[in-house]
UniProtKB/TrEMBL annotation:
Signal peptide: none annotated. This is Epimerase family protein. InterPro entries: COQ10_START, DUF1731, Epimerase_deHydtase, NAD(P)-bd_dom_sf, SDR39U1, START-like_dom_sf. It comes from Planctopirus ephydatiae. It holds the Pfam family DUF1731. Residues 185-400 form the NAD-dependent epimerase/dehydratase domain. PANTHER family: EPIMERASE FAMILY PROTEIN SDR39U1, SUGAR NUCLEOTIDE EPIMERASE RELATED. Residues 435-482 form the DUF1731 domain. Belongs to the NAD(P)-dependent epimerase/dehydratase family. SDR39U1 subfamily. Belongs to the ribosome association toxin RatA family.
Length: 494
């Protein structure tokens, strides 16, 4: 009888010991230039998950309830083992300013618990430590087969997360110390590529955001202010209000690479920028209390094809379709200027993110070894990381001395050949399949010259002169950060 009782008691202990043997752990820390309380607030703010999700991972938020301080839950669709799986995570063990945990309720792991710890190191300096305990499905075989893969994946992911957190909080500290505080910000083009990075950057910095939309669109997290629905052709506000908005970021416009440049499509490109901008500016100018600043997107297409000429905000306009559209786009802001609104026309270069735009289009051919230079490769491609573009927008809102044209490109422009070589090296692929200009023209028409072969060597003089600190000035470092490649052999951003 005693023997049977001992066996019954020992069995659960043996099972727990077996499970514990398969439990693996991961830990990474980063020192941040703010207090533990501020770092915690950043993680608790709406949009933090979006800021921390690596852009190379196709992770989608399905739903979320609550927050990290009240047992909130988030449901994600994540890539795992060559397919998509649902990951349900619940926040728990919250001690405000010190720690919280994310525990997998359902997902690809047998067990997954993420503990975030925040500790003050001194005055306005803290350490964030991410501790993860996990168990792979399949017991000892699963641990043996997948352990090193998961370890490397976590190291890459948290390298990205910690760099992003550090850079975002560094900019917050700089702006906070200059006296810049929370604003009510209206963002148009709110479902587009740039805004999907900008809005979570704004909300985690403590700003409240209203999305300016042409039709109601579900929000994946609270932005702090109700959406505004409007008709961009007439300027009529159909739902919501512009009253009380302190800053406006206007990003709306037809994708210039969204179709062959027929006369009808070129007119759509022009009208989406010029008509929409003028109607918005007229609406803002008519407000009883207009916003203090409007940051309106423009493009380095303003300068046209200029070869090796170094172009600054003082350089003359170029010739052709894109320069003409860019000039009219900037002139459409005149009603806002006349109303005393400070207008910044952000002349944006090639925006780098694997979530869309030029870089996304290049990844597939480069992955299959079919990448190569465009034409002779001597044309300048003036690029900017999507995080720096959004950082420059925030800097423009916060800097009263900035007005008029402002170039939004990285300080170190590269030729197409240099860009091709760096991307191939980062992806560890050959790039030996050139794209002749005549073939591109046959496939894309007029658009091919302006988007692939025109050369614009643009310098961000006004951003630099007003103290903007670029996160990425080196193309290779930027691409490694965005694509989840090792950064040990290149210079890290500040």
């Amino acid at each position: 009888m005693a023997s049977h009782a001992a066996t019954a008691i020992e069995q659960p202990l043996t099972t727990e010991a077996t499970l514990a043997a398969h439990l693996q752990s991961f830990q990474r820390s980063v020192v941040l230039p703010v207090s533990a309380e501020r770092a915690f607030e950043w993680h608790a703010a709406p949009g933090a998950l979006e800021r921390l999700t690596p852009p190379w991972e196709e992770i989608r938020v399905i739903s979320r309830t609550g927050g990290i301080d009240n047992e909130g839950e988030v449901v994600l669709s994540v890539p795992a083992a060559g397919m998509r799986q649902t990951w349900v995570a619940r926040h728990s063990h919250c001690i405000w300013g010190q720690e919280f945990r994310d525990i997998q309720v359902r997902g690809p792991f047998a067990h997954f618990e993420h503990r975030h710890r925040f500790a003050n190191l001194g005055v306005n300096e803290s350490q964030l430590t991410d501790e993860i305990s996990y168990r792979l499905p399949g017991g000892s075989l699963g641990a043996w087969l997948g352990g090193s893969f998961v370890e490397q994946k976590l190291a890459t992911m948290f390298g990205y997360r910690h760099r992003t957190t550090l850079m975002d909080l560094t900019q917050w500290k700089q702006l906070h110390e200059s006296g810049f505080s929370s604003r009510k910000v209206l963002v148009s083009g709110a479902t587009g590529l740039v805004a999907s990075t900008l809005i979570p950057m704004l909300t985690t910095q403590g700003h409240r955001v209203a999305r300016l939309l042409r039709k109601p669109t579900p929000q994946v997290y609270a932005t702090g202010l109700p959406d505004v629905i409007w008709n961009s052709a007439s300027g009529e506000v159909q739902e919501g209000s512009l009253d009380g908005v302190e800053a406006v970021v206007h990003l709306a416009g037809e994708n210039i690479a969204g179709g062959r440049w027929t006369p009808a499509f070129k007119q759509r490109i022009r009208d989406s920028r010029v008509v929409g901008t003028r109607k918005l500016c007229e609406r803002l100018a008519a407000l009883e209390e207009p916003p203090a600043v409007l940051v309106c997107a423009s493009a380095i297409g303003f300068y046209g094809d200029r070869g090796d000429e170094v172009l600054t905000e003082e350089s003359a306009m170029g010739q052709g379709f894109l320069p003409e559209v860019s000039e009219a786009w900037e002139e459409a802001c005149e009603p806002a200027r006349q109303a005393g609104i400070r207008v910044v026309n952000l002349r944006i270069g090639i925006v780098l993110t694997p979530r869309g735009g030029a870089l996304q289009k290049l990844l597939t051919p480069f992955w299959w070894g079919a990448g190569g230079v465009a034409g002779n490769g001597s044309q300048y491609w003036s690029w900017i990381s999507v995080d720096d573009l959004c950082g420059a927008i925030l800097h423009s809102i916060a800097t009263p001395s900035l007005a008029g044209p402002v170039n939004a490109t990285a300080p170190q422009g590269v030729t197409n050949r240099e860009f091709t070589e760096v991307l191939a090296r980062v992806m560890r692929r050959l790039a030996c399949v050139p794209l002749p200009e005549f073939a591109a023209r046959m496939a894309l028409g007029e658009m091919a010259h302006d988007l692939l072969f025109a050369s614009s060597h643009v310098q961000p003089v006004r951003l630099l002169s007003t103290g903007y600190q670029f996160r990425f000035t080196d193309l290779e470092c930027c691409l490694r950060h965005l694509l989840g490649r090792p950064l040990a052999d290149v210079k890290l951003p500040h």
